[in-house]
Amino acid sequence: MSTKPIRRILVTAASLMLAACSAAGITAAQADVRNDQDTGPAAGSHHDTDTELADAFNSVDRNTAWQQTSKLKLNFPTYHTEGIAYSEDHIFLSAVQIIEPTKKFPTPQGGYDRTPGKGIGHLFVMDKAGNLQKDITLGEGDMYHPGGIDFDGTNVWVPVAQYRPNSSAIIYKVDASTLDVHKQFEVTDHFGGIVLDKQTGHLVGNTWGSRRFAEWDLQGKELATWENPNYFIDYQDCQYVPNAKMLCGGVTNLPQTPAAGGTSATYELGGMAMIDLKSHEVTREVPFQKWSTAGHVATRNPFKMTADGNHLTMKVAPDNGEEGNGTEILTYEATVAPAK
To answer: Is the dihedral of CA 173, 174, 175, 181 positive or negative?
Structure first.
């Protein structure tokens, strides 16, 4: 019996296997390139269908009974705190060290309402006990003011802007494991908060006073902008919430009556808001009136929230390093009724 047909069959099969392996190799390489380009969204993507936080926050109202359950004192200079984020191993805290305060112009000059001032931007890296592990300096020139930050499962995103509206900012990506810093891109406005939308892989930031939002791809191309439809509070620190939502904490300073001290004795109104990143609507806003050691409303700056079913835990750090008892990370907890 001839063996030539068998050899032809084996050669053909081997060729098909090599072609399949080659195609698979190309596909894998292409996937690697895509994953490299989209660093961030893929990490932690198994949480994208977890809507516990969104569901629980939709049951928060003015009567929700928040209880302070812990207080963590930070024993290093923290200056003016801005944003907070938690990875598996670290606590990240952004802060600005003011060297020369800004000064308002009598009339705007060159499109600015004040001088740039001088300062240093910090991203403090701590262990879970609050011990300082590393102080990462961020910023360039007049851009020294870190804002609200967020952790996407792999990277911490940090905007560092000029300390004045209608200015400019740098968007940084910090690897939460290696602590390597990458300057992602620059933008022409003051952006004081940022999150990464894991559904789109895009970044979303809010400007000075959170009056406007912008969306970019990871190369810094602006894809959309929209005005904040609400004026209840100015968002200071935000986080991404599955699916396609942004949860923010913030504050607004309200002038007092003459008998209560007038405009020099402002009242801090704190609150929280959920923004739908698809419709751009504020879907829920709730005031928050708990106070820090130094007398600030708890949602004044650093703010993050988690949920375990209908049990919510909120971490805040409203006090500056030189105020009251210094910066303390406060934990508040509340249990809400399940949404109907």
So the answer is: positive
Tell the burial category of 42 from Cβ atoms under 10 Å away from its Cβ (0-12, 13-18, 19+).
Answer: middle
**Would you state the structure tokens that stand for residue 166, as one six-digit string?**
């209608």
Other residues' Cβ atoms within 10 Å of the Cβ of residue 321:
16
On the question of pLDDT at 6 being above 50, the answer is no
Amino acid identity at 249? G
User: Dihedral sign, CA of 73, 173, 30, 242?
Assistant: positive
Alpha helices in the chain (DSSP H): 4-37, 52-57
Q: pLDDT for 187-207, tens place per residue?
A: 999 999 999 999 999 999 999
Task: Copy the structure tokens of residue 72.
Answer: 């963590």
pLDDT score at 10: 37
CB 255 within 8 A of CB 262: yes
Q: By the 8 A CB rule, do 144 and 119 touch?
A: yes
Q: What pLDDT does 340 receive? A: 64
CA–CA dist 272, 289 (Å, integer): 11
pLDDT band, very low/low/confident/very high, at 8 (cuts 50, 70, 90):
very low
Q: Which residue has the tokens 């200015």?
A: 167
Residues facing 271 on adjacent strands = 250, 287
Q: What are phi and psi of 38, to 5 degrees?
A: -105, 35
CA 336 to chain centre: 24
* Vertex 18 angle, CA 17 and 20, to 5°: 65
Q: Are 60 and 312 in contact (CB under 8 A)?
A: yes
pLDDT of residue 47: 41
pLDDT for position 37:
36
Q: Where do we find the tokens 């300073």?
A: 253
